[in-house]
Amino acid sequence: MITVFYDGKCGLCAREINHYRKIAPPDRFNWADVASHPQMLEGYAVSQADALRYLHAVDADGRVHKGVAAFALIWNEINGWRRFAPMLAWPGVRHVAEAVYALFAHIRFRSYRHCRLAATAPKTGED
Q: What's 89's DSSP letter?
């Protein structure tokens, strides 16, 4: 089982995750909206703010994948997307994808009030 942490209050993010949900194999993913349910992050060294900023996914071995690596993990499990996952490992492609995603994530994060509030929330022992 792969757990995917995403921002359910972001319209774009929710649409993308809903698309994956429709086409993903059954019982392969646990979709965790950390905007509405931050307690789902308990036990992971991921703050709510970081989970809202970047897509995160935890593989079956408990390893946390962030950003482009999380997309690769998800895509590798979904027919039609599986062929794109290896491309994200190519050095040039990976660097460009990570830079573009980081810029997008930063701009998107700053544009949502719930993200800004999470960034200024008191830190817990998990962070």
A: G
